[in-house]
Amino acid sequence: MTLVRVCIAEEHMEAHMRDLVRRRPVLVTAIIDFQLPDHPLLIQEYIRQEYDFHPYYPELRSFLRFWDATMQGKRQLVRFVAQSLDDARFRHVDSIHTLN
Fold it and tell me: What span, in angstroms and rounded, lies between the C-alpha atoms of 59 and 14?
């Protein structure tokens, strides 16, 4: 009986590890266009960057549910880009420019 439980636990762990491999962490940048009720002709933009799991993006979905439940601004458009951490490249920045 103990051997069966161990085998089931190992199979469950292997399935869990396969699921984690499929759901790799990625850096997600989301751009949310929204409209406030006091300025109906003005579309504003909110940018959020966080680590999330590909392909389901549970953190982004949770944040969008939070937005819908608590924020007054109605979402017009959500765009996002996901960058795999494996593909991340670092480069040296020579200078930083600021526009007024």
Answer: 24
Domain span at 54: 24-84
Nearest partner of 54 among 29, 10, 80, 22, judged by Cα: 22
Alpha-carbon span 16 to 8, nearest angstrom:
12
Structural domains of the chain, count: 1
Distance, C-alpha 90 to centroid of its chain: 21
Summarize pLDDT for 27-44 with one digit per residue, the tens.
899 999 999 999 989 999
The helix or strand, by DSSP H or E, that contains position 31, with its residue range, turns out to be strand 25-35
- Full-model pTM: 0.65
